Amino acid sequence: MSAYLISMATFVGFFMILALALNLQWGMTGMVNFGIAGFYALGAYTSGLLSVKLGWPVGITIAMSCVTGLIAGGLVALLSMRLREDYLAIVTLGFGEIVRLIALNEDQITEGPRGLKIDARPFADMFDRETYPLVYLGLVALAVAVVFVIVECIRRSPMGRTLRAIREDDVVAEVLGKNVLRHRIQVFALGGAFMGLAGALYAHYVQNISPEVFMPMVAIFIWMSVIVGGAGNNWGLLLGAGVVMTILEGSRFMGDFIDFLDAEQLSAIRIIVIGVLLIAILRVRPRGLIPEPKFSFAAASTDQERQPSIENAK
Amino acid sequence: MSGQLIINGIVNASLIAPPAIAFSLLFGILRFPNFAIGAYVTVGAFIAYALNVGAGMPLWVAGLGAMAGTAVVVWLSDVLVFKPMRGHTPVTLLVVSIALALIIEHVIRLFYGADVRGFDLPLERPIKFAGMRITGEQIDIIIMTIVIGIAIHLLLQYTRIGKAMRATADNEVLAEVRGINTSYVIAFTWLVCGALFGLTGVFAGLDLVIEPLVGWYLTIPIFAAAILGGIGSPYGAMLGSLLVGLAEELTVLVLPSSYKIGVGFVIIAVLLLIRPHGLLGQPEIKK
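^ Those are the sequences you sent over. The predicted structure of the assembly is below.
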């Protein structure tokens, strides 16, 4: 049981990194990203392929995952120059699907649906099999802490205020002399790097990655984490990631009590519960369980009620 | 070879056009991309399947039933989910629509599982000419899509309710001031669009397969068609469907067919960069 808890906590860690990255991009800067699964997959495959095919040491491959995430994020952000936020949603979703399609179809390189086996693990020879999961959890926790500190520092810095200004009204930010495009690209690239990091850590943890893990569904879980926790608030989404994972994993145990449903139906019910909760939270507490402090997102968005088309034109 | 691809492309376009028109009409009043459209199509496919295979009705009766049933489901999704949330930001509504799509898809999974199904139809030999083949069902789909296109045109252009729909999409407040009962018009729009999604479900069941994800595979081509044509413009949606339908099939000439789903995305990305308001759309007012 404790092995199970350790593994669950490790997965919560991956979720937290992804959620912190999304919070930087969307919660703080207002840039929609539904391609989270794509960045996650990119990180996982970059590190996995470099270590399997080229035999690079794990530390370097994980760093390379951050770099590819950074570059991909920067390129996708360039699209935001002319895109309304809801179109950016479609384009980022497309980015994610294309990454997945490439991983699925170029199977001479990625092993496609058979899954890529990755033997290399960081510090694997220094610990025995019993303690290693705990060590890995510590490593993931360290990564979460580092990402958290970076994102939180940005949030409190003058740059954080600029980002919020861009989120609330990019035209005003532009008029105030802020380079909106440069900030957007920086933030999206940095978020992409964090997602790449999460992907790399995931790849070396499960040691077998296949494209079906990186479905658009991942993005929904992360959005759910950020929305439940409260967009713009880094503490809240740590809670949010925990809540979402608990619902996802906790409902596995329902099977022990309800024996008239098969596994397929239980997993369907799990997703239905997630969906209903997401809608309910957005309706009842649109700012999340722990709303962003001081800056009122709701107050700023009520102005947009009547003329969204004009308000959102970029 | 390429003649066959063009036929496939036209069939594909006929499949995308009705939901693209519906998506465009809905965007006119909602002002956010509704990601649940694929799930609506799936609902149509499964209602038709239940009536056709489950209850043994002929397919045309099942198809009408699917249109009516889907219209009600789609309208209910507005009453229960979207209506109470009018005025929220487009991104919030977009997330809600994705959650709704997940719920619908998995409710279907709960009852029908993930198996691939098909309608109960006699097998027909495809019609062959000049080395190309097309099935009778595909011809039906093309003809019905053309009829639908003309019907929507007449509805929007010449009927009272159609004019009210255009007025509401253009400026809801102004329409309200001019004495149009906009909440009635919006409900009517949802019902019409729901019927179109239901019909698409039947088409999808005929030309593709019936499974919980069938609508999801159509979602991106539908978006691409509507955006390509200029979002909010039903005629643009028809043109956009034709272009996307052909583009998807013709890529098979240069890329493996497994990349077909990516084509829609690439079209969207390129187009949004070059001409964000689409081929036939009006540029939006900038502040």
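Chain B has a mean pLDDT of 85. Residues 2-30 of chain B form the longest helix (29 residues).

Shout if you want it in another format.
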